[in-house]
From TrEMBL:
Organism: Ancylobacter polymorphus
Protein name in UniProt: OB-fold protein
All residue ranges annotated as the ChsH2 rubredoxin-like zinc ribbon domain in the record: 16-47
Signal sequence, start to end: none
Lineage: Bacteria, Pseudomonadati, Pseudomonadota, Alphaproteobacteria, Hyphomicrobiales
Pfam families: zf-ChsH2
Domain of life: Bacteria
Length: 139
């Protein structure tokens, strides 16, 4: 584990990790819960006693839908339309992210829904201005 307080910025530390395909969060020394993406304090109890941890990148896709065009932010225009979803990281937190390996079409999303929760694996999308975490269907 790494002391996030030693870093110039928890967000910079997170994005530098993404650039290396490393997925980071902070673990609270007071309550033991994870905050993802990392911040300077625990999102659960407010403690500043946090330390950096690396995540496995493994998750379960709980729900997926698609965006509409135009994308919500200019950085995503080149990949729109895309699928995004709610995921439970293996380490516990629930997050939202882009889902890769699924077409943004109703029939593809229906087939995915009928499969039920499915395993996914994190990867980094290199966008024009910064790296972004995404998850790809496993297997």
């Amino acid at each position: 584990m790494q002391d996030v307080a030693e870093q110039p910025s928890a967000i910079r530390w997170y994005y530098e990790g993404l650039g290396q395909n490393v997925f980071r969060a902070v673990s609270c020394r007071s309550c033991g819960k994870l905050t993802f993406p990392p911040t300077g304090c625990c999102e659960h109890c407010g403690s500043w006693e946090v330390e950096g941890v690396e995540l496995s990148g493994e998750a379960t896709l709980l729900y997926a839908t698609h965006n509409i065009t135009p994308a919500c932010h200019p950085r995503f225009e080149t990949i729109a339309p895309y699928v995004y979803g709610h995921l439970r990281l293996r380490e516990g937190p629930i997050v939202q992210a882009i889902i890769l390996g699924v077409e943004a079409r109703p029939e593809s999303l229906r087939a995915l829904f009928e499969r039920g929760p499915v395993p996914v694996k994190a990867e980094t999308l290199t966008m024009e201005d910064l790296p972004v975490i995404a998850f790809r269907l496993a297997g």
